[in-house]
Amino acid sequence: MPHAAVMPRSRLPRVGTTIFTVMSRMAHEAGAVNLSQGYPDFNAEPFLFDRVSHWMHAGMNQYPPMAGMPALREAIAAKVSHLYGAEYDPETEVTVTAGATQALFTAVAALVHPGDEVVVLEPVYDSYVPAIELQGGIPVRVSLAAPHYRPDWTALRAAITPRTRMIMINTPHNPTGAVWTEDDLRALAQLVDGTDIVVVSDEVYEHIVFDGARHESCGRHSDLAARSIIVSSFGKTYHITGWKVGYVLAPAELMVEFRKVHQFNVFTVNTPVQLALADYMERAERHLGLAAFYQAKRDYFREALGASKFDLLPCGGTYFQLASYAALSDEPDTSFVEWLTRTVGVAAIPVSAFHHDGRDAHVVRFCFAKDEATLAAACERLCAL
């Protein structure tokens, strides 16, 4: 007779399988065009892959330094200095991570103690709150209002208490595509001035900002840089999301604490890939040209859906487009995306998945980081509704 299964007491009792996994699986089962999960369906240029092979064959296949290969940390620091005028010491203030999600989790694990409050802006990317709760922290949610999803500084100020340890921000913002302005960063600086609040700034779409706007990194603002852990992602920048390589910038005092956790939850990151990325970064146009590249895709997607019944919300950055389907259905967004996937043949993400209470405004998220043929096939089906 088999033994009874052990039933552990879950540390995340309200968490199931991430919506991105659910929708991608559904898209595969239905043979649908997958505009749900946020990854490109095209490759980086062959030079990047050639450099990985080069370093593998050159014997660079053992553990790199815990904080990352010096060549890559130096390239990151040089890029940030050029773009934002921010000087980070590659030795003590730059760490290479196993993707942005690991970086975000590690930042929370390093700095949030049981009972600490962490302010998040909702709709919120789905990894933030579980990371907070696993450390015994208390998520404090502040809503971003459609259609522009701008931060409400009165509400944010009201959310700050003596127990606030951290504020997590994301610009350009997933899922909404909203981009913070210089005034927003100034308001944030005023909000945290005189406190010991740490800002975790998720800037993985830093190079995907449209219509001539400028990405306002916390690194660009010295008063914020002094208290911020900034997270970015090579996967988003170079179309290699499956490689899971990102990085963190932080002043040395914060980075000491970050690395204490980093060394035990991942230790270090793939050596030949790090060296290949350092080589690839030598040509700045590879990241500087990303905004125009994705703006062309955004504009194509929006124009192709112009004849549809979807109401397209503003998109100032990222490679996501929000759309209201109120003119098509009054079904909950979770039911609508299942119908859209299984019957129409296009997969999307329900925006209610980014709200703790399942708030449903009949809005879905499409990913336009796809080849034109993929986007054309999806738009033809969506316009036929």
Describe this structure in words.
The protein is an alpha/beta fold and 385 residues long. The protein folds into two domains: 121 residues, Aspartate Aminotransferase, domain 1; 225 residues, 3-Layer(aba) Sandwich (Aspartate Aminotransferase, domain 2). Helices cover 39% and strands 15% of the residues. The chain contains 15 helices and 13 strands. The strands form three sheets. Strands 2-8-7-6-5-3-4 form a seven-stranded mixed sheet, sandwiched between helices. Strands 9-10-13-12 form a four-stranded antiparallel sheet. Strand 6, helix 8 and strand 7 form a beta-alpha-beta unit. Helix 2 crosses helix 11, helix 4 crosses helix 10 and helix 13 packs parallel to helix 15. The chain is globular. The mean pLDDT is 96.
Q: How large, in whole angstroms, is the Cα Rg?
A: 21 Å
Mean pLDDT: 96
Regarding CATH, which class of the largest domain?
A: Alpha Beta
Report how far the terminal alpha carbons are from each other. 55 Å
Which percent band covers the strand fraction?
5-15%
Instruction: Give a short account of the largest sheet.
Output: 7 strands, mixed
Q: Provide the CATH architecture of the largest domain.
A: 3-Layer(aba) Sandwich
> How many helical elements?
15
Number of domains: 2
